[in-house]
UniProtKB/TrEMBL annotation:
<dbReference type="GO" id="GO:0004775">
    <property type="term" value="F:succinate-CoA ligase (ADP-forming) activity"/>
</dbReference>
<dbReference type="GO" id="GO:0006099">
    <property type="term" value="P:tricarboxylic acid cycle"/>
</dbReference>
<feature type="binding site">
    <location>
        <position position="46"/>
    </location>
    <ligand>
        <name>ATP</name>
    </ligand>
</feature>
<dbReference type="InterPro" id="IPR013650">
    <property type="entry name" value="ATP-grasp_succ-CoA_synth-type"/>
</dbReference>
<comment type="function">
    <text>Succinyl-CoA synthetase functions in the citric acid cycle (TCA), coupling the hydrolysis of succinyl-CoA to the synthesis of either ATP or GTP and thus represents the only step of substrate-level phosphorylation in the TCA. The beta subunit provides nucleotide specificity of the enzyme and binds the substrate succinate, while the binding sites for coenzyme A and phosphate are found in the alpha subunit.</text>
</comment>
<keyword id="KW-0460">Magnesium</keyword>
<dbReference type="GO" id="GO:0005829">
    <property type="term" value="C:cytosol"/>
</dbReference>
<keyword id="KW-0479">Metal-binding</keyword>
<dbReference type="InterPro" id="IPR016102">
    <property type="entry name" value="Succinyl-CoA_synth-like"/>
</dbReference>
<feature type="binding site">
    <location>
        <position position="209"/>
    </location>
    <ligand>
        <name>Mg(2+)</name>
    </ligand>
</feature>
<feature type="binding site">
    <location>
        <position position="223"/>
    </location>
    <ligand>
        <name>Mg(2+)</name>
    </ligand>
</feature>
<dbReference type="GO" id="GO:0004776">
    <property type="term" value="F:succinate-CoA ligase (GDP-forming) activity"/>
</dbReference>
<dbReference type="InterPro" id="IPR005811">
    <property type="entry name" value="SUCC_ACL_C"/>
</dbReference>
<protein>
    <recommendedName>
        <fullName>Succinate--CoA ligase [ADP-forming] subunit beta</fullName>
        <ecNumber>6.2.1.5</ecNumber>
    </recommendedName>
</protein>
<keyword id="KW-0436">Ligase</keyword>
<feature type="binding site">
    <location>
        <position position="109"/>
    </location>
    <ligand>
        <name>ATP</name>
    </ligand>
</feature>
<comment type="pathway">
    <text>Carbohydrate metabolism; tricarboxylic acid cycle; succinate from succinyl-CoA (ligase route): step 1/1.</text>
</comment>
């Protein structure tokens, strides 16, 4: 789960990390009080969307002005002007795709005078099984670009979970960033706070880009991006409240209500599969035969008829779907249960596109019989290869 920058900074502040003061803005009326409370003389007005590259982004509407999604203001009037321009407008950045994202929230922050910009992130490093800090002197830039062009400028260090974060980790970060004296002390303290925040709220990724040194020698987190491990959210009910559904795909929200592992994709063939591995294989084979999948969907091992119906509804509600492939291996799940679920779903939502069903495993004969006798226009398939070729052919014929 991702959250907004202002929410991320709120969490870092609780753990004692240095972040600038600021106020979220939900309606333009909030602006004057926020700007006055911060006092100036410089403010930053920042678009809150779940995507990076806002500073260099462009708004679609001419009324939003020529500047990007992060703007420096030198008067309360300018703060108000930028809020009015940006609120409700659509920001296109490198990460949003061409459609952009509507800016429904802003963040007004006290401006900082930047002397240096660094990069610092923490993530779960699967290779070492440890939490790793990744730091670079090349801050404020696209870190992928830095990794590509000058990999020697990126330093990674891991923290053994048995000891937790130690002073030497902080010293190593300070050294990598070329910080000495009091700034090195600030870096050590920051690393401790960030590690505590990371572990304390079960983060998956924490990225500060840029981490800055101000002109008066203070270390500050100027930007903050956090994503949490969704599997641990049950331990943090207060974090679940930070979820912003307007940032998420409607179909993915609906799927999460039924505990379905669903990810929307750009293609034309809707897929209903059980097991993540089988789902991946199904996407691959669709591509092999020349079409693109419309989604990844793992209905899970113990899917009920209700779950299958919900999954089917989500797939058919997608206007891009030109054909559906159901590919089920009945292990824990029985093929007859799936067959009944598919039929119930088709009866409930109708079927406007070709449907191929491939069943294998427990009670497969019974499952096939149920489908064949249902009178529904289902194309049966014998194996995965056959199923993929049939749905691709049917979609190509319809196109
Ligand atoms: P991003 O473009 O989505 O990564 O948004 P950031 O929060 O990183 O802001 C983009 C850029 O705006 C930063 O890299 C800074 O260069 C600049 N910026 C943000 N806040 C301030 C500030 O308080 N003072 C100054 N001078 N620049 C800022
Ligand atoms: Mn940034």
């Amino acid at each position: 789960m991702n959250i907004h920058e202002y929410q991320a900074k709120g969490i870092l502040r609780e753990y004692g990390a240095p972040v600038p003061n600021g106020f979220p803005i939900f309606t333009a009326d909030d602006t004057e009080n926020a700007a006055n409370a911060l006092g100036g003389p410089v403010w930053v007005v920042k678009s809150q969307i779940h995507a990076g590259g806002r500073g260099k982004g462009k708004f679609k509407e001419a009324s939003a002005g020529e500047m990007g999604g992060v703007r420096l203001a030198r008067s309360v009037d300018d703060v108000k002007k930028y809020v009015n321009e940006m609120l409700g407008a659509t920001l296109v950045t490198k990460q949003t795709g061409p459609a952009g994202k509507q800016v429904n929230r802003l963040y007004v922050e006290e401006g900082s005078e930047i002397a240096k910009e660094f990069y610092l992130s923490a993530l779960v490093d699967r290779a070492s099984g440890h939490i790793a800090f990744v730091v670079s002197t090349e801050g404020g830039m696209d870190i992928e670009e830095v990794a590509h062009a000058t990999p020697e400028k990126i330093v990674t260090l891991t923290v053994d979970p048995a000891t937790g974060v130690m002073p030497h980790h902080g010293r190593a970060v300070a050294k990598a960033l070329g910080l000495k004296g009091d700034l090195a002390k600030q870096a050590e303290k920051l690393v401790g706070s960030l590690y505590a925040a990371f572990v304390g709220s079960d983060m998956e990724m924490l990225e500060i880009n840029p981490l800055i040194v101000t002109k008066d020698d203070k270390l500050r987190c100027l930007d903050a991006k956090i994503s949490f491990d969704s599997n641990a959210l049950y331990r943090h009910p207060q974090l679940a409240e930070l979820r912003d559904l307007s940032e998420e795909d409607d179909k993915e929200i609906e799927a999460s209500k039924y505990d379905l592992a669903y990810i929307a994709l750009d293609g034309t063939i809707g897929c209903m599969v059980n097991g993540a591995g089988l789902a991946m294989a199904t996407l691959d084979i669709i591509k092999l035969y020349g079409e693109e999948p419309a989604n990844f969907l793992d209905v899970g091992g113990g899917a009920t008829e209700e779950k299958v119906t919900a999954a089917f509804k989500i797939i058919t509600a997608d206007p891009n779907v030109k054909g559906i492939l159901v590919n089920i291996f009945g292990g824990i799940m029985k093929c007859d249960v799936i067959a009944n679920g598919v039929i119930a779903a088709v009866k409930a939502v109708g079927l406007q596109v070709p449907l191929v069903v491939r069943l294998e495993g427990t009670n497969v004969e019974e499952g096939k019989r149920i489908i064949n006798e249902s009178g529904l226009d289902v194309l049966p398939a014998d194996d995965l290869d056959d199923a993929a070729q049939k749905i691709v052919a049917a979609v190509k014929k319809g196109a």
